[in-house]
Amino acid sequence: MEVLLSWCLRTSWQVALLVLGILVVQRLFARWLTPRWRYGLWGLVVVRLLLPVQPAVPGAAVDWELTSYRPSIERSDEVEVDLRTSERAIEPAPTMPAADAAPAAALRSRPAASLLGETARSEKTVSEASPPVSRRVPWKGLAVGAWLAIALLLLLRDLRRERGFRRRLARAPRVLDPEVLDLVEECRRAAGFGSPVALIRTDLVASPAATGLFRPRVLLPDSVLRDFSPAELRHVLLHELAHLKRGDVALNALLVALKRLYWFHPLVHLAFARLRAAQESARDWEALALARDSGPVPYARTLLRLVEETPRSVHSSTRAPSVGFLHGSPDMKWRILMITRFRPTTKRSAFLGVALVATLSWTAFTTAATPPLPAALVGAPEDASKPPERVRVERQSAPEEWRADLRDELQQYVDVAFHGASLGTTIDWLRERTGINFVAERRFLLDYEGERFWLQGKLRVEQVLDLLARSIDNVDWCLARHAVYVGERGDLPQALDLRFYNVGDLIRTPRNEEEEEEFSSDVDEVIALTQELTYEENTWESDGVAIDYWRGLVVIMQTDEMHVRAEAALNRMLNRGAQPEVEEPDWRAELAEELQRKLSIHFDETDAVDMARLLGRERGVPIVFPNRYREEFEVALVLEDVTLGTALEWLADACELSVSLQDGAVVFDDFPPVEARFYEAGDLLRSRPGYDDWETADGLTDMIRNHVAPDTWDEDPRCRLFYWRDMLVCVQSRPVLDAVQNLLDAARRASSD
Length: 753
What we know:
The protein has 753 residues and is α+β, with helices and mostly antiparallel strands. Helix content is 45%, strand content 17%. It contains 25 helices and 24 strands. It has a four-stranded mixed sheet with strand order 3-5-4-6. Strands 8-14-16-15 form a four-stranded antiparallel sheet, covered by helices on one side. Helix 1 runs antiparallel to helix 2 (35-50), helix 3 runs antiparallel to helix 7 (248-261) and helix 4 packs across helix 6. The chain is elongated and about 110 Å long. Mean pLDDT is 78; it is low at 66-114, 116-136, 313-320 and 370-384.
């Protein structure tokens, strides 16, 4: 919906500028523009309305996208703060399940703000509690719906009128007068129109008209057939046949559809009115060119006679898909003036018309290609033409097809609403809803019978399983024997697979005894770093798991999940720590938008788990608060005019926990998610007089551990700091990694000569 609305608004203002430009051009070159070129200029508006996108062309006259040099901003788990005005509170549904009820809780909704990392927090006390609030009204979707609904109603009205007109026209008789039919045939041959044309006598039209997308017909009122001379009738027929030859009937139908789609745009209606006027004038000139035995004056008299004998209301009438002698031409004075100026097309007018059409087309139909950003802004790679290196992987056995099929099934979305569901109930619900085989041993379900699962939102099945494992300690899942197995961590029947990784020059094969020691060091470093970068508790100590080296190959026996991590770690080593670009998951933007909405809360000595789940349920945000924290934290929290993300941060601070976006949900835990980052540190590790290499290296790591988040290195077993060749490798949370980079930059500046 948002994309459609953005496209409509962008097209609308671009068409408005194009219409104004055509008006200016026609004003400046009025004396030299023929009706044909006026018609062509207004046709550009139709083409622009039908153009879905504008091609980006270097050197285009206008940058319609309003792009310019913009620095590239790296996205993170933090959401940018966006403050907006408050909305009136909306009353919610009054009931809540007992499992999620939180005493003295109140929410008052307002749009705006952020999760994780807001620099300034509002802490205003509210005097009285307010009820929870429903979600923000999706005004963009409503606007698009209203626009399309009105357009559809207008178009249906036109179709109903057209259908009634066609039904009445089917009963009208054909003209059978031989003299008139001979005149029609003569005019048809003169106009070069190949299809036969039926002549219909009808009073449904007050002036001559051409109609029929597939069966061309000319409609003539009785008064025209009865009172007009053969010469006047010839003028009329040549004009209508020019309409049929140029496809004006189909164009008129298209104009009606576009007018209904852009019913709100006055300049579109103005442009179409001018286009129809130019169309009639262009057909006048074509008829004059064919009526060689008469000049502009007799033709103009025929037009004036039609105007005098036709009711005024018909002059500007529109009945799609028809075109007529007086159709769409309310300005008869201008049309008569153009008839008196009739002359054969000259090279000067043709050159002017082509130049104006080409210039306006280049301006309206293309947009300037955004130039590449300067390297100073985006950071140019050392060799942009060189693709990243990748290890070559050989499997001991071919991958099982059912695993890939089952992985695909786990990507389907489900709307979950677990409010204190047991493990058995959760697994049964997933099995029935998705049709996937889920297996859980009875002993396991009995052992974890007291555990409950809370989760609400639209998530992938794989995300639901991951969040289930985060919510309940020691519970995990895996793929085994064509099914999803849910069980206790450490007892999962995960299959091990042997794979060979060709790491190229990462380990240099010794050519002599002198290089043997260096070779052993390379092997040890690569194996140790692979384990460090894929570390999880008991991942390399389980039975059957192994990592070795053989003839230039790293040989690993591990599970599928760990093989993916090991391959990524080896690829990073090959590319000196470069991290491949990873596309932002689709759920992050949606979740961030929900967390930006403002609210006010009032909790008095409330269990933190109940508080978080109530906030998430009322706002439709998936929130995972592990069960081990149940009844551990009693929190009193009063906040006014803050975002949901900020409120959750305050709640995490009160419980001395971290809060982050993971697997499509807001997750509370002891520690934030961590990642590995490689830092170029060769210049900082060079020994100086009086210092040994090991003293320099140890001094640098001690400085980082003592001055950058000192408490986290020992508290979180995942956080590590070590060296690999001339690079410093740090495994930490993203804010700490940024702080380490700042420290290294400062140390580099301070130690420079």
